[in-house]
Amino acid sequence: MAPTSPTALAASLGGSTTLKNAHVWEVTSPLSVGSNKNKAHHHFLPVQLTPGTRRRRVSVEVHRVKSVFESTTVASAADIAVDSSGLLNETEICYVRILQHKTINPVEAALDNILTSKLKGDAKKAKEGTVNFFTGSFRKKGEDGGGGGGDDADDDSISDGSFMKSFREPFSPASIIAEKREQQEQQSFEGWIPKYKIPLRMFHIVEMKKRSVIVAFEFHGHSSHREFVFEDEAATKEFCAIVEKEKALLDGRLKILLKNSLGDIKLKKDEGLTLLFDICSGSNLPVCDIGMESDPYITVRFHGKRIHKTAYVSNNCNPIWTLRRGANFIWKVDALELFQSEEGLIFEVKDYDAIGSNESLGAFNVNARTLYKWNGERREFALKPLLGEPNYGKGKVSLRVRRATAHDIEFMEKFHEKQKKANNIISLPNIKGGTTLKSIMTVHKKKEKEGPDKGKAKYLIRPGPDPKRKEETAWLTKEKIDEEAMEQSYNWTDIGSGTLGKIFVEILECNNLPNMDQGGVLGVKTDAFVSLVYEDCFARTDIIDDCLSPRWLPWSQRAFIFNMMHTSSQLFLAVIDSDANSMSSHDLVGRVSIDISNFRAGSIYVLQYNLFPSAKCTPREAKFGTIKIRLRLELEDERNLLLSNFQLPESVYVNVDNKKDFDVIIQTVEGDIDTRRYDLGTIHSFCDELISYLTIYYALEDAFKSLLLWRGKSALSLPVPSYSTRSIKWVDVDFPLHSFVAFICTISLVENPNLLPSFCFGCIGWLLLATCERRTANPNPWMRSKSFQHYLSALILGKSLMGAESIKAHENVNSINQAESMWDKRVREAEERAKKRADDYAKEQEQYLKDLDEIGDANEDLTTYGKAGGLSLPNPTRAYLFPIQQYLGVACNWLRIFKNILSWEESYISFWIAAMSFILSGVVFFIPWGFLLKWTLRIIVWVVFGPWMKLADKFYFSRLHNETKEQKKERMNQEELERQKQLGKQKTEAQIAREKKSKLRDFKQYMFGDHICKVNILKKDRYYDVPLPTSSATVFEPKEQTLGELAMQEAGYRRTRVDGQQLVGDMIPKIFETPTTEAPTGKPTKKTDLLEKGSPAAFYDGNDSYSAAAIKVGSIVVGAGAITWFGVPMFVYLVRLVLPEGV
């Protein structure tokens, strides 16, 4: 079925159309037999040879049309009032309508088919499509020309068939029904069906003969010609005269139409519009397919010409169109042309059918004013039937439109060119392509025979020597390799989307890795590289071939700068065995997650960790080697870092285009165990974890005893006067502070119960402070967290007073071992006591059963029970246990988060909870809770139990009980309407959330890759990876540099910038771009404290803010005015005193 004409659509979409007048002629439309080369003259079949099916009626009609755009959008009343404020005047539109008779002789139609397709004699083409005997034109099967057979041969030729469908009206019984609307005013149309409806401005008389007229339909540079043969010469002249008369009125009607369309809008000269469209979704679309839902897609037309078409969404009546399904497109149009259109843009929803024609599900239009003023908000449009199409009475489509930006245009151009943007992944430069035989034949170790290193073993440097010292660094001794590995890296890769701070990470070495390759005896060993995942970034180092203790040297790809988005984010590292075979995946050696939140800025950390396959479930054994890294943290503003935690962390995802890379990311973040899959071992591990939390009882028992028995000791610094030196000394005194505070608070609470709410809030903060104190007093420096005072000073001053920290290797090893052994002994003794109690209880039960046997059975039941028989069916454990596994996983995740906050592993969140608890405790301290509770209870008692409840019964409850069926039905209908309103609101919110999720996923898949991995922000691992005692920390002391060296460094010298995968923006988002340079505008350098002493730039204070600059300039102006006002007269007076009077 061919598309309906634009103006017919306008009449079918709720517009108010009244036929003012119509002139009708009965004509014959002969078939076209071709034209000359320049198409100046067209030839048609003689009227005597024209089939009877070519009978037509031509009507020149003038319609009064009100705005059709007032009721199409489901918008607020205010929006409708604005959009329709200037569109209430009537507009006249003139059409030339061509009608055909509703009864078609099948014999004539068959003869017409033979005449147009068979007589040519081309059997091959006749099988493939339709051949016009007279014109020689050929149309393949399936080309949408509007029909088949001789009745449409002139309309559907290859030259103009696709053009004429723009004016086509549907041929269906529904269109006959539609015509009955006008039959009362237009009785001459009875029995005729509208075929084409052409706006008069597109209709032209080319040539007039005695009884015939050759006309042309023109639109956007395309044209189609027809011949109308009238009954007599008078009818021909009358037709031409009326057409010319109506054409003379076109300009005036067009001005009225444009005035009504523009309203208060004033267009600029030659103003053009570049609009970005986002077809969001459809909801509750009609169902056309039997036994399944529709396959909807949308076509967009302007003046009958299709400007866009989406892909269809299979079997979905609530489809969401995304980028790759054609949701977004850019349309450029002349603003004046848009406002001169009667209907604006037409959006038609169709149901795709692989077999047969695509059915129309409804359409809607968007007027020029709405498009011109639209600013990107989401709007819903109700579907209404096209003329001649079934009215399903339901369905909505939501859109968003705004002016396109330069980024939008560039993005869509690249998208249509199918040029994917490069993935934001640091690629492997030396993925092995060699065979196992090549690895075996490669020599990695040799003994030096001469030179200063004679007799020493040297190793081949992988992946290659220093480009600046190739010969010198091609082979090095083990000691030299270790020395070189600790040098500063040459090149850095700056990656990520955050702005809170920077994390400098260097992968130094791995030791004692297991051999993951087959054939290790022959010399093939693990080909290791390190994968790094941080927030929305994925990076990896060079591959070190055939080595179980690889070293990454300064000139290799090993140094990365990650930009921080959230304080709780972890740095995930994994050592991977590379597999060059494209058919197999890389193998995980081990992984580690590094908690950044408790590291301090200004320190360089050399960290060594044990590698484990997973940190979620299974018991871990240290047999997968170790990894050593160097890490340094730079924070822009610690106050902003703290304040950023008021926002909940958003979900972060990493996309890659390669399945092997995706597996590497999954292994780096999650490990080798997927807890989302059903496994009995996972259930057992969850249960074991839940049981392990019972050990907190021992810690609570110790803490309660320490609090109650005043055993606790807190170091307090007290001022003590010294008589010998006559000064005050600060002496550290151990004092049971927590017991003292508990005593004061409890006696205050007993005396004044109104303090209970304040006491409850204070207890939360107090508990967190106590755990923080316990954590900071841990003998293991790598188990300590930042103190409450650290965060408080950072919040108040913008920078912590604690400064950088220095930790020696193997610091407090003896104390650490002693504390761990004491705790293990404490737990072991408690478990032994619990086991002894269980054994004693079991013995008691056994003795009890023996006593019962001696007494004997006295049961008087005479029933006999047979033995159970038959086959026992296998138990479907998965159906029952898998939901239990999921519930256990959720419980463990929440317990892990709670444990991390309580133990200050999520130290930023712990600080804010403690701080807010103390603030709330102080606020509610001054609230008279007893007074409020007393008067609240008084009001409730007086209102609920008072005698005036009789009035409530009389005027409300009794009426509710005695209401009639009609009243009850009306009340229930009102309640149902309110419920449906709330339900509709919830559905809309859920639909918008699904739209955002689907569209963002599709954008990320298009821009970065189809494989998506979620990266956890909050810590959800069971095990906490702690640096080994060999780790150390030193205060970072950057060397002084010249202004040129520092400026080049801050400008990004020897740094490769790679943007993260964080998308920002609406409709067509773009990558969040972190500044590629640290160099500030208008300043010689950002870090003037690193400049050499004596450098002029070292004394530069920096740029002033606008307010500070304004104050300085104002001070200078005021000072100059004051000096002028007072100084000039004083100077003149002094001159007069010095000089003689006559001078």
Overview of this protein structure:
The protein is of the alpha+beta class and 1143 residues long. Helix content is 36%, strand content 22%. The protein contains 29 helices and 40 strands. The strands form twelve sheets. It has a seven-stranded mixed beta sheet, with no helix packed on it. Strands 5-19-20-13-16 form a five-stranded antiparallel beta sheet. Strand 7 and strand 8 (138-140) form a beta hairpin. Helix 17 (680-692) runs parallel beside helix 23 and helix 20 (756-776) runs antiparallel to helix 24 (907-925). It is extended. The chain starts with 5 loop residues before the first helix and ends in a 5-residue tail after the last helix. Mean pLDDT is 76; it is low at 1-16, 67-89, 104-165, 169-189, 425-435 and 861-873.
